[in-house]
Amino acid sequence: MTTGTDPLAPLAQLAGVPEAVAEVRKNVDRLYGHRVMRRRAGEVTSESALRGARASAALEGADWPLEEVRRRTDFGADPESRTVGAALRISAEAGQLLSVWRTSPLQVLARLHLLAVGDADPAAGRPRHAGEDAAPLFPLEIAATEGTAPEGVPGELPPPPPPAEVTARLDQLAGLLAARTERPTGGAPALVVAAVVHGELLALRPFGTHNGLVARAAQRIVLTAEGLDPKAICPAEVGLAELGTAAYRQALLGYLEGTPEGMARWLTHCAAGLGLGVRESTAVCEAMQRGMV
Fold first, then answer.
1. Which of 16, 76, 150, 273 would disulfide-bridge 239, Cβ 3.0–4.6 Å?
2. Residue 180 CA to chain centroid, in angstroms?
3. Quick one: average pLDDT of 215-228?
């Protein structure tokens, strides 16, 4: 593929996005300069992975206390525990998939889904076939479907595209990512690329289940591969959970609209989530420095 103008670059100029990108970059750089990172970076990475997995599961409706996630070893007893287990398995292996991501992101997505569902599931690691539905992304949707959501809460998101369109858009996304590896400088900043990958996977819902877990893990991989967070110490999932499922869903609706305003809303929401993730890891570093961890 030949190099050229990055088609994602204009997104970085949408209203509020340059400021959000600059603020996140400044805060990430400050975290990497923390004195604890000189000696205990590996521990910060491990703690970030654990907290990110817990938060990603919480966004799926399995909102467990951090210490419960830390101490538990059995994650197969019920749907919530299986969701937490899936998030932990994905988080534990995501960092090992960077080299594959750079050459074959679709292979990584398949691996992430297989980690989530287990190899006993015949649908593990493969996109939906014609006639197969995708599970709801958010507990809010499930509640709306069952008639138990709070009054005034909107119902389901628009349905995902059919499998043929999913395949075409995944191939297009993989092509965009491959082109970035051939483009020596310039283009959209890492935060924008990660948010687009995240949003596109939520929009496509390529697998029958666990699309949210896979999309958030892919965002983390992009942030690492693109060099914004090379040691994977900034758990954006924590920030997204802190901002709340309703806000996350509303921001995704902006991505699905595809308008400049909607895209800006999604990108700045992802930036805010990452910023709160940086704050979380900064607190971890401060606790380590005080000898509390």
1. 273
2. 19
3. 97
- Phi/psi region, residue 131 (left: phi>0; alpha: psi -120 to 50; beta: rest), is left
Please name which of 6, 79, 77 lies closest in space to residue 226, comparing C-alpha atoms: 6
> What band does 179 get if pLDDT is binned at 50, 70 and 90?
confident
The mean pLDDT of the chain is 91
Query: CA nearest 108: which of 93, 92, 122?
Result: 93
Alpha helix segments (H runs only) across 95-231: 98-103, 105-117, 139-146, 163-182, 190-204, 211-225
**Highest mean pLDDT pick, 73-82, 126-135, 179-188:** 126-135
Burial annotation 209-232 (CB, 10 A radius, 16+ → b, else e)? bbbbbbbbbbbbbbbbbbebbebb
Q: How far apart are CA 209 and CA 211, in angstroms?
A: 6
Determine the distance from the C-alpha atom of residue 17 to the mean position of all C-alpha atoms in its chain, rounded to a whole number.
18
Count the helices and strands in the chain (H runs, E runs): 13, 0
What's the chain's length in residues?
Answer: 293
